[in-house]
Amino acid sequence: MKLSELWLHYEQDKTLENYSKKTLKSYRLELGLLIRFLGDMEAEDVTIFHLKNYLIEEQKRLKPSSFQHRCKFIRSFFRWAHEYDLLSKNPAIKVKMPKDHYRIPKPVNEETLELLRIASKSPLEGLLVEFMYSAGVRVGEVYNLNKKDFNFTNRSVYVFGKGDKEREVYFSKRAEIWIQRYFDSRQDEEECFICSKNKPYRRMSIDQIRWHFKKLARKAEVDENVYPHRLRHSYASHLINRGASLEMVRDMLGHKRTETTRVYTLLHGDKRREEYRKYF
Fold first, then answer.
1. Which InterPro entries does UniProt cross-reference here (predicted)?
2. For 226, what's the count of Cα atoms within 13 Å in the CB-facing half-sphere?
3. N or C: which end of the chain has fewer CB within 10 A?
4. Tens digits of residue pLDDT in 15-41
5. Closest CA to 191 of 131, 151, 148
């Protein structure tokens, strides 16, 4: 059985396990890269040396976090095939996972946040800043929302995060005002939360949302690199710095592991300096 044929069985099995379409698309890409390197060879002929040669080349060009995902998929794919007796041996059994590499998330500073707020003149711009900051959502979660999902009585909305896991998030009064203004300004009849400005009206893509955010950052003339996910970092960091528990922040962010959230407790910049000055 060739690697491409083995993938069809793997995809079918993981679909039944309710893996998200996004996750399976990512895995399909991972296997495609392996096949491009090795060729669509017989899966039974793949050895640890084939896999190590591939991973050595990938490590040269990937960020540590991306390389970790690459190793994780290869280990999972071949372990599954062996457990289902589709392979007589598991060639990835000795593929070691690289050590966790945590980069300290970089929230936008408070001055930058205020500059973005001041520069927000249209309802869409105000919505992007206030909703993404006060709800701590991923841009992909924003993309999937519809107008009917919003509960303005509780200022809450249910989003579907990684692995299609549902969670309730909350947003500020400022965000509510901008959202309502945005809905009132719309000329379309679409149900999506954020819609393209011009006909044919359709759900605004993730790339378009990012583009609008970059455009706002240029208009605000901020000195740092600003993109939607940094507002999520700001949300988490501000909650931690203001006394929220790690467990609460983990649940609000939709993290599976507390260790993933713990990185926000690492001190950086002004906070580190402030703590240092207490002693010297």
1. CB, DNA_brk_join_enz, Integrase-like_cat_sf, Integrase_catalytic, Integrase_recombinase_N, Tyrosine_recombinase_XerCD
2. 30
3. C
4. 988 888 888 898 999 999 999 999 999
5. 148
- The Cα–Cα gap between 235 and 230 comes to 9
| Contact in structure between 171 and 130 (CB atoms under 8 Å) | yes
Structural domain for 36, as ranges: 3-83
**Where do the H-state alpha helices sit in the chain?**
3-16, 21-38, 48-61, 64-83, 110-119, 123-135, 139-143, 173-185, 206-220, 228-241, 246-253, 258-262, 269-277
Burial of 76 (0-12, 13-18, 19+ CB in 10 A): middle
Q: Are 143 and 204 in contact (CB under 8 A)?
A: yes
* Residue 32 included in any domain: yes
Place of tokens 């996004």: 22
What are the strands of the beta sheet with 166-170, ordered from one edge?
150-151, 156-160, 166-170
DSSP state for residue 162 in the 8-state scheme? G
CA geometry: angle 27, 84, 65, nearest 5 deg:
30
Sign of CA pseudo-dihedral 251, 253, 254, 260 = negative
In a domain, 24, yes or no: yes
Whether 248 and 129 share a structural domain: yes
For tokens 């044929």, what's the residue? Answer: 5
Do 133 and 178 sit in the same domain of this protein? yes
pTM of the model: 0.70
Bridge partner residues of 67 (DSSP): none
Comparing C-alpha atoms, which of 193, 188, 213, 218 is closest to residue 204? 193
Judge contact between 145 and 159, C-beta under 8 A.
yes
Please indicate, yes or no, whether residues 133 and 71 belong to a single structural domain of this protein. Answer: no
Please tell me the distance from the alpha carbon of residue 83 to that of residue 90, in angstroms, as a whole number: 9
Q: Give domain status of residue 213, yes or no.
A: yes
CA 252 to chain centre: 14
